[in-house]
């Protein structure tokens, strides 16, 4: 009995002191979170072609993210906001659509699947990684088209008014 009690005490003692922090939430957006590991791995994404969505830079240059943890966190928060909206509106894209787009990209570039996979590898992607990136881009484009572009109405009068304001002395 004494041996069993000692074993239980040692197991409990080990469990209490063996806990370690695996990851940490640094921001929460709706039901999405930004983890410390996301922030720490972000710098590597900056250097991969196509991994950063220029529309989420809000007019800033890509270089503004390099070494700037606050700007990186802001970017990741914007990503989570967009992801949350895509989910909320049910704009998720299926695997077939992603596969179709990937095949079209290869054809447009006159590559077969194997050559295209080698090209992606040279850019730092596996085919599966690129499919995830492509899926995200298609979903974002759907969101932008549905919620923003479809609601833009610019008349000739609007354009002429901006022109006159910008170039008041133009004749």
Detailed description of the structure:
It is a single chain. The protein is mainly α. It has seven helices and two strands; from the N terminus they run αββαααααα. The chain has a two-stranded antiparallel ribbon with strand order 1-2. The longest helix has 21 residues, at 69-89. The mean pLDDT is 87.
Keywords:
171 residues, mainly alpha, two-stranded antiparallel ribbon, 7 helices
Output mean pLDDT. Answer: 87
Strand order of the largest sheet: 1-2
Determine the number of helices (DSSP H or I, runs of at least 4 residues): 7
Number of strands: 2
Provide the low-confidence segments as ranges.
none
From the helix content, strand content and strand pairing, which structural class follows?
mainly alpha
**SSE order, one letter for each helix or strand:** HEEHHHHHH
**Oligomeric grouping of the chains:** single chain
Any idea what the shape is?
A: globular
Strand content: 5-15%
Largest sheet geometry:
2 strands, antiparallel
Radius of gyration: 24 Å
Summary of the model, kept short:
The chain is mainly alpha-helical and 171 residues long.
What is the topological layout?
Layout: H1 2-17, E1 25-29, E2 32-35, H2 36-46, H3 69-89, H4 95-108, H5 113-122, H6 127-147, H7 156-166
Antiparallel strand pairs: 1-2
């Amino acid at each position: 009995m004494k041996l069993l009690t000692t074993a239980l005490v040692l197991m409990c003692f080990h469990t209490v002191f063996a806990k370690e922090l695996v990851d940490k939430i640094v921001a929460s957006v709706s039901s999405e979170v930004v983890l410390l590991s996301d922030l720490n791995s972000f710098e590597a994404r900056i250097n991969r072609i196509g991994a950063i969505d220029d529309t989420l830079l809000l007019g800033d240059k890509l270089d503004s993210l390099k070494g700037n943890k606050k700007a990186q966190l802001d970017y990741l928060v914007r990503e989570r906001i967009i992801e949350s909206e895509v989910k909320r509106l049910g704009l998720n894209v299926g695997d077939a659509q992603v596969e179709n787009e990937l095949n079209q990209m290869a054809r447009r570039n006159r590559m077969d699947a194997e050559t295209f996979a080698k090209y992606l590898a040279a850019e730092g992607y596996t085919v599966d990684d690129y499919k995830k990136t492509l899926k995200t881009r298609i979903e974002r484009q759907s969101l932008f088209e549905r919620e923003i572009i479809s609601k833009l109405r610019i008349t000739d009068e609007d354009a002429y008014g901006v022109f006159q304001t910008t170039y008041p002395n133009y004749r």
